[in-house]
Structures are given as C-alpha cells and as structure tokens.
From TrEMBL:
GO terms for molecular function: ATP binding; ATP hydrolysis activity. InterPro entries: AAA+_ATPase, ABC_transporter-like_ATP-bd, ABC_transporter-like_CS, AdoCbi_amidolase, P-loop_NTPase. This is Iron ABC transporter ATPase. It comes from the Bacteria. Keywords: ATP-binding, Nucleotide-binding, Translocase, Transport.
C-alpha cells in the first residue's frame, strides 16, 4: 500500500507537481493520465524519491520513504523509468538480473536460488526468456522494453512504478505486459502505479485513474468517473467521444477528427436500390451508420452495402453465419462493408417507398412474410417452436441521428409495423388474435449522418413522424404484395 499526502516536488524550487494526494491499496493498480508535460513522469520520480519533495509525503507501509535507506527502499519499490539506462553491452539475462541488485550483499557473490527464481519468473512473464543470452542491442525497441519490465519485476518489490510500460509495444505485447501486471497485482498483491498515454488501456487495466493537468490533480476515481468526454476534452483540448467496451464494464474513448463534410447533404434515393431474383440491394457511395438485427454484421457499424437476400423455404439455418459468408464471397460482396438479412419472401414482393421531410428524404423497404405471424403476447402459450416467417424492415434516413434517436427509431418503426399488421388484419393462427409480427423479424435503421443532428426520433419529432408513416404505409404495401401472390 502506498499513501501520498499533499505531495509537491520536482526539478526546481518551484514545485512542478503540486498537492497530490492518493492511496493505492495493496493489489490495486492506479493509472496516471494527462497531456504531454502535465507532470506524470515527474510525479513518478518524486514518488520514488529520484526527485526531491518540497512538501507533503509518500508513505509505504506507514513509513515515509525518506526513512528507508536506498537498498531497503528498492526492496519495497521497483521503478521502470520512461528512458532506460544504456545497457547495450549486456545480455537480456544480465539486464534482468540487475533487478536483483537490492537483494545482493556482494554483487552476484550471493546469488541465491530465490534470485534465480525471480529472474526466471520475470523473463517468463514478460516473454523474453527465449532471448536470455541475446545482447540487448540485437533486440527491437519493443523487445527491449519488455526486458526492462522484466528487470523491474525481478526486483520482487511490493510496489511497482511504471512509466509507460507499453511504450513501443504492439497490441499483443501490450496485452501480455498489462495482463501480467494485473495478474501480479491480483495474485501476488503487487501494488502498481503506472503512467499510461493510452486512455483505453488505462481504463481496461487500472482500478483507479488519476488525471493530471498542469502538475495538479484534475480528477481521481474509477475509470468511469475520470474518462468523461467533457473532462477529457477540457484537459486535452481535443474533441472526443466515449463508448462502452464490448465485454468489460469500462469506458473507452475515441478521438473525433475535425468535422469535414458533415453539413454536406448526401442523398440516398429509391433509384439506388437494385432488385435481382436473389436479393434486394442498396449500394451507397458513402458508408451509412447502421443499427440492425441483421444476420451478417449486426449491431452498430458503418456499412455501404445492404442486402435482403431471398432464400428458399427449406434453407437450413443451422450454420447461417458461415453460409452467408460463403454467399458473399461467391457473389463478390465485401464481407466487412455489407449487412445481410434473410427472407423467404420472393424479392419481387418488396415494397420500397420514399418519403420527404425537411431534414432530407427517407426510404423504407419492407419484405413481409406474414404467413406465420404471431401475437407476441400469446406466443408463450405455444408448445411448438413458432414457425419461421420474417418481416424485414429497412429505414434509410438522409439525416443525422443521435444514439438516443437510433434507439427511438427502432421503437417507432416497430410500433408502426405492428399497427400495419393490425390494419391488414393479420392474425396469429393459433390464438386467433391480431398478430404483432413474426417470430424472426429483423429491423435496420440507417442514416447518412449528414446535416444537423436530430436528438430524438419518437413520434413527437418530425423524423419520428416520418418513420411512423413510412414504416406503416410501406409495411401495409408489403403485406398486400404478399397476399396478392396467392
Ligand atoms: N530535467 C528536467 N529539468 C527541468 N524541467 C524538466 C525536466 N524534465 C522535464 N521537465 C519539465 O517538467 C514538465 C513535466 O514533464 P514530465 O516529463 O513530468 O511530463 P509528462 O506528463 O510525463 O509528459 P509526457 O506525456 O510528454 O511524457 C515539462 O514541462 C518538462 O519540460
């Protein structure tokens, strides 16, 4: 455990880092963030006693660090500096072994089994064991960085101070080093303070973050309390947006480049649709921001090719993802820029309609296979698997939607679809009640993201009204097309 109280210090009489206070409990990781020159490295040097303290104190195990002698302090605290001493004539093993220096009485004279074990463990954990006998100058920058991390680890101190430990490392080795640091913290109780430039890595790996600004603490807390877009924009003077990590409850952040042609309108028109026997396709010049429940590329993303593919009624859907991938390759569609839905309805029965609005026009395309429609409030009564049937709905908006608006658009579109089924008297064959959809409906909301942002898309808004009218009328038309085929 390390306790820092009102710490100030640095290079000159006027302290560069000012009034820093925090506690890092045993086994926890604190990340230090901040713009270039904000004092992160200086803080680490003051913490480790390399630079003088003007006021305040750093305590380890309840004792101020200046009350430890150099060797005793080195047993408590290991430091990985940002710039490393030139160790180029040495082998990797020799450089890592230097980490055992505080444990030696006469250098290498008292090399113990424990020293050897610490060096071996550190080399294995950082993946440098295979370069053991290699001279340092033969290693790449990233490999050398891992050797220095190994050296700090070999010191087997309770506290590890790391200044940009992932500098020079590729994504796999960033993960390896940070996974290793986290494992040592969780399993061996290592306490870690590390400077990281990459806010996303800091958010993923650190328990708490300290955001520095002009040598002072701007914020401290859990990642979600520190990585707040407005705060980061203020400190870094850069436009950013935050988003959720796909697997971890940790915020992630991305830079927002200066907006280019956002105001320029792009027009997706009905003529941009192509209908063949096998699919309905919309190919756009610019990628659209899409939220969908498609079978291929579902979720949120940017795509320029939309396919509603007609498959035979006996299509086996057990490995649908692989089959769709094979189809895309066979037909020369780019798998990464194409969204695919499947329908058993012949493509000729699609309804595509265009609606105008002040923000730009909107196109709605629907295939309505309502032969096996269900009343969603009654499906729990069924013992059998609901039959497959599909209403595929696409809403293409020439406009810019906020995240809330995308979600509201899905609700508005779903309500309008349900109303269309009611209007066309489509019933659940089992319950006899009005159907609300089918068991495998799919929805796609796409927007060009040009023009002024529309914050909401409920029926109180113009875009919501247009979605509601568009989906209702187009679904009614698609149902009529479906009925008329018989
Ligand atoms: N040896 C030095 N003597 C005097 N001032 C220094 C010295 N080293 C750095 N500084 C100054 O201290 C300030 C903070 O530097 P520091 O290295 O702590 O920033 P940092 O937040 O780690 O930056 P970076 O993100 O660029 O690594 C800078 O303005 C820098 O110019």
């Amino acid at each position: 455990m390390i306790v820092v109280e009102h710490l100030s210090g640095g290079y000159e009489d006027v302290p560069l880092v000012k009034d820093i206070s925090f506690t890092v409990e045993k086994g926890k990781i604190l990340g230090i963030l901040g713009p270039n020159g904000s004092g992160k490295s200086t803080l680490l040097k003051v913490l480790s006693g390399i630079l003088p303290t003007t006021t305040g104190m750093v305590m380890i195990d309840g004792k101020a660090i200046h009350s430890y002698n150099a060797r005793a302090l080195a047993k408590k605290m290991a430091v990985l500096p940002q710039l490393h001493a030139n160790a180029f004539s040495n082998s990797v093993r020799e450089v890592v072994s230097l980490g055992r220096y505080p444990h030696q009485t006469g250098f290498f004279a008292s090399w113990s089994a424990r020293d050897e074990q610490a060096v071996q463990h550190a080399m294995l954990q950082t993946g440098v064991k295979r370069y053991e006998q290699t001279p340092m100058e033969f290693l790449s920058g990233g490999e050398q960085q891992r050797v220095f991390v190994a050296q700090a680890l070999a010191q087997t101190a309770e506290i590890l101070l790391l200044d940009e430990p992932t500098n020079h490392l590729d994504i796999a080795h960033q993960r390896q080093i940070l996974d290793m640091v986290r494992k040592e913290a969780m399993e061996c109780g290592l306490t870690v303070v590390m400077v990281l430039h990459d806010m996303n890595l800091a958010s993923l790996y650190c328990d708490e973050l300290l955001l520095m600004e002009g040598g002072q603490m701007r914020a401290i807390g859990a990642p979600h309390e520190v990585i707040i877009a407005s705060q980061i924009e203020d400190v870094y003077q850069a436009r950013v947006a935050t988003y959720a990590h796909p697997e971890m409850p940790k915020p992630q952040i991305t830079m927002m480049p200066t907006a280019g042609d956002r105001q320029q309108r792009a027009m997706i028109k009905k003529e941009h649709f192509t209908i063949t026997e096998h699919y309905i396709q919309l190919q756009t010049e610019i990628p659209l921001k899409i939220v969908s429940s498609a079978v291929h590329n579902p979720g949120i993303g940017w795509f320029s090719c939309l396919l509603n593919r007609s498959v035979p009624g006996d299509y086996v859907i057990s490995d649908v993802k692989r089959e769709v991938n094979e189809f895309l390759q066979r037909e020369n569609f780019a798998p990464t820029s194409t969204v695919v839905m499947l329908t058993a309805v012949p493509t000729s029965l699609v309804a595509i309609q265009e609606f105008s609005a002040s923000f730009g026009n909107m196109i709605v395309a629907v295939t309505a296979g309502v032969g096996n429609a269900v009343d969603v409030s009654r499906v729990h009564e069924r013992q059998d698997e609901p039959y497959i049937g599909t209403i595929n709905t696409w809403v293409i908006i020439n406009g810019c939607l906020s995240e809330e608006a995308f979600l509201q658009a899905t609700m508005t579109a779903t309500e309008a679809k349900t109303k269309a089924l009611q209007s066309e008297n489509i019933r659940d064959a089992r319950s006899g009640t009005i159907a609300t959809g089918t068991a495998t409906d799919s929805l796609l909301i796409a927007a060009t993201q040009k023009g002024e942002e529309m914050l909401y898309a409920g029926p109180i808004t113009e875009v919501g009204k247009t979605i509601a009218k568009g989906v209702f009328e187009t679904t009614v038309q698609a149902i009529k097309n479906y009925k008329n085929q018989f």
